[in-house]
Amino acid sequence: MTTVIEKAVKHFDTIQNTKLQEYFVEEWDTTIYYRPSLTWNEQAKLIDLSTQGKSSEALIETLVMRCLDKDGKHIFTSADRTTIRNSVDPDVIVKIVGRINNTTKSDAEDVEKN
Asked: How many domains does the chain have?
């Protein structure tokens, strides 16, 4: 008999293991990839930054945490945060993070079915 926790874990595994979502960033002439969901620890970090009034830091953290290459590897490192903060167009960051955050888990489940 499957327990509720086993079902919950299986559901999250299914979401996490769906095909990566992709988004072409015109300004960078680059396609970024991302998963449609975060772990609780990742989400908690972003929530903490936001509730501390550090919205711009939360945006940058989202970019670093979620942007992947086609193989699922992070395209930004922790060391890139300062460069992103000082030398990358904030409007593009907001656009990318908005796209990533507006991808719902049901979108991922639709992709998985196709």
From this structure: 1
